[in-house]
Specification:
Elements (H helix, E strand, L loop, with lengths): L2 E2 L5 E2 L8 E2 L18 E8 L3 E2 L3 E4 L10 H5 L2 E3 L2 E5 L5 E4 L1 H15 L7 H14 L12 E9 L14 E10 L16 E6 L17 H4 L11 E6 L4 E5 L2 E8 L5 E5 L11 H15 L13 E5 L4 H10 L2 E8 L3 E10 L2 E4 L4 H14 L10 E3 L9 E2 L9
Parallel strand pairs: 3-6, 12-13, 12-19, 16-17
Antiparallel strand pairs: 1-2, 3-22, 4-5, 4-6, 4-11, 7-10, 8-9, 8-10, 9-21, 10-11, 13-14, 14-15, 15-16, 15-18, 18-19, 19-20
Helix pairs in contact: 2-3
GO biological process, one term: L-leucine biosynthetic process
InterPro entries: Aminotrans_IV, Aminotrans_IV_CS, Aminotransferase-like, B_amino_transII, BCAT-like_C, BCAT-like_N
GO molecular function: branched-chain-amino-acid transaminase activity
């Protein structure tokens, strides 16, 4: 199977059937300090002449690049954050993986990296990698196997090129244990939530920039802003000090409106500053179905008179809501943390305490219940990974391809 491109080239697609698998050797020993990482990795090379190369799953290993590779010189890389969960029955699940694949395509297109593949083919390869790592996936509440698909430019990316598109690239997938677990209890009723520092010194994103894409450059350059004693920065923008994200999370405020409705307000995606989070989208879908009467929220406790609002929210508005009592809670959400209560914000040298709200735990328990197969939301959001037990090398003969 091939796919034709407008540039006249015929490029090969990702084909799960051509997978080449190499098992761990009998002498395999986990290197010191790597105990929390997965044992295997998936790699799929690409070049602009022939397209996608042979997928390979084999022992996790280091990567090497030319010193002038685009990923090293200009941070030409994007990634996704996904998780694998184990159910009470022992099978493992992925949560809405096609949403992550589509977002990865969007990020790749923004960088001039390859951005076309069949999600079903990629999902089959993901599933085989997860099946191999099933023994590592924890089954306790709040635990997970975190998955990091990464796409980067491996060809020389130094200096001025004829166009912005990569010559060669690599898509690889590795795993590690329990990203976000430390923040998981922050939605419990007895917990005070996480502490945020409203950052004015550094700007994470701006209109027309890359804030709505999951690019490596968006994250490494802002880590320096994190202050000791705070979980993460609450990013601000504009003269009005509008909030955008907290660390790498989407943010919601829970506020009682003048007409008595409980509003779940989050930043709009229209200005390109906020990442379109999969957890964010899922919460909005469930809340809107409940509000419309189309389908009850999966767990009891969410009022019927609610609405979801997507608009800008400023720090002065949050402060005013605290002063008049209309602000009923605030939380962040994302793949790493699922749903976490925000309990405190430092802003302009003052500390503001955000009230806790039991609804936040309901949201957290609902999403994790769906992820672990305990709740059927009727949308097939939880994908059950098929078993796969290869013996020895499997698949097509190993290819050795050099880009023209």
């Amino acid at each position: 199977m091939t796919t034709s491109k407008t540039n006249g080239h015929t490029l090969a697609p990702i084909k799960a059937s051509s997978l080449y698998f190499t098992p761990l050797p009998p002498t395999h020993v986990v290197p010191p300090g790597k105990e929390s990482h997965g044992r295997y990795m998936l790699t799929i090379p690409w070049n602009r002449v022939s397209g996608w190369g042979q997928p390979k799953i084999g022992p996790r290993q280091d990567l090497s690049f030319d010193p002038l590779a685009g990923v090293l010189q200009y941070a030409v890389t994007c990634f996704e954050g996904m998780k694998c969960y184990k159910t009470d029955q022992g099978d493992v699940r992925l949560f809405r993986p096609n949403k992550n694949f589509d977002r990865l395509k969007r990020s790749a297109a923004r960088l001039g990296l390859p951005c076309e593949w069949d999600n079903d083919e990629l999902l089959e390869l993901f599933a085989k990698l997860m099946a191999l790592e099933t023994p590592l996936v924890p089954d306790t509440d709040g635990s997970n196997l975190y998955i990091r698909p990464t796409l980067l430019e491996t060809s020389e990316g130094f200096g001025i090129k004829e166009d912005a598109f990569a010559g060669e690239a690599l898509l690889y997938v590795v795993t590690t244990l329990n990203l976000g677990k430390g923040l998981y209890p922050s939605s419990e009723p007895e917990n005070k939530g996480i502490k945020l520092d409203a950052c004015k010194e550094f700007i994470r994103a701006w209109p027309g920039g890359t804030g709505s894409y999951k690019l490596g450059a968006n994250y490494g350059t802002v880590n320096i802003s994190k202050k000791p004693g705070y979980a993460m920065s609450l990013w601000l923008h504009g003269r009005e000090d509008f909030i955008s994200e907290a660390g790498a999370m989407n943010v919601f405020i829970v506020k009682e409106a003048a007409d008595g409705y409980l509003e779940f307000t989050t930043m709009s995606l229209n200005n390109g500053i906020v990442l379109p989070g999969v957890t964010r989208e899922s919460i909005i879908e469930l809340l809107e179905e409940h509000a419309s009467g189309k389908k009850d929220f999966p767990i009891d406790g969410i009022p019927r008179k609610i609405r979801v609002v997507e608009r800008d929210i400023s720090m002065p508005e949050i402060i005013a809501g605290l002063e008049d009592g209309s602000l009923k809670g605030m939380f962040g959400c994302g793949t790493g943390v699922v749903v976490v209560q925000i309990g405190e914000i430092q802003y302009q040298s003052k500390t503001y305490h955000i009230p806790s709200n039991p609804i936040i735990k309901i949201l957290r328990d609902t999403i994790t219940g769906i992820q672990r197969g305990k709740i059927d939301e009727g949308k097939s959001w939880s994908y059950k990974v098929p078993e796969w037990n290869p013996e020895g090398k499997e698949g097509d003969e190993e290819e050795h391809v050099t880009a023209a």
